[in-house]
Design goal:
By secondary structure, the chain is an all-alpha fold. It contains ten helices and two strands.
Length: 224
């Protein structure tokens, strides 16, 4: 297939691979997934470009000549072609896009790991995370920016303990990944549900009424 047909196929696969029910959640860490560009194939394929290559790799491609881009793309296509039959199937494209989504998660963990493994021992303790994230507000428990950092820290500690399987309050990289991205781990689903309930249940009665639900939907719509 030519490049335009390939990009059109990629666009359809991207939409399929990322299709899932809307998640009503509020995380301490908010980052764009796959791409921060608008997904509008009628104008361009920039979003699909990022989804296919990864945002950082896509920036590199922007600096290449058409010949260099074609050569680099050929190497990537070879990786996508799982059965090495010389063709890229729709299923292989879907698998690659899912891999790209996971790759973003691990890249995010690597970025944050460097800022939280303060003693560089290959582990992140709760004390390290707390000091790196909240150290500047521990001396000023009532900052003027309107955030309840004490409540945020309590939530983070609860989630950290859930992610920390052996209960030593020291996270391996895999446990730290579960802490930062709990929705990716089955054993973290209870904490995802609990945090989501707390975010939506504004009157803290243990139930979500229609007004709270609609309010949450309106809030999410305003962020889009």
């Amino acid at each position: 297939m030519d490049l335009r047909q390939f990009l059109m196929c990629l666009s359809l696969c991207t939409a399929f691979a990322l299709s899932k029910p809307t998640e009503k959640k509020d995380r301490v860490h908010h980052e764009p997934q796959l791409s921060d560009k608008v997904h509008n194939d009628a104008q361009n394929f920039d979003y699909d470009h990022d989804a296919f290559l990864g945002a950082e790799e896509a920036k590199t491609f922007d600096q290449l000549t058409p010949e260099e881009s074609k050569e680099r793309l050929g190497k990537i296509v070879s990786k996508i072609d799982g059965d090495k039959d010389g063709f890229v199937t729709v299923d292989e494209l879907k698998d690659w896009i899912k891999f790209a989504q996971k790759r973003w998660i691990y890249e995010d963990v690597e970025r944050q790991w460097k800022g939280h493994d303060l003693n560089e021992d290959g582990l992140v303790s709760w004390e390290e995370y707390k000091n790196a994230t909240y150290g500047y507000v521990l001396d000023d428990p009532d900052p003027d920016d309107g955030f309840n950092y004490k409540q945020m820290m309590v939530r983070d500690e609860r989630r950290f303990k859930m992610a920390d399987k052996d209960g030593d309050l020291i996270a391996t990289k895999e446990e730290f990944t579960a802490f930062l991205h709990p929705e990716e781990y089955d054993y973290m689903k209870d904490i995802v549900v609990q945090e989501t309930m707390e975010d939506i249940d504004k009157n803290a009665d243990g139930f979500i009424d229609l007004e709270e639900y609609i309010g949450r939907q309106t809030y999410q719509g305003g962020d889009c």
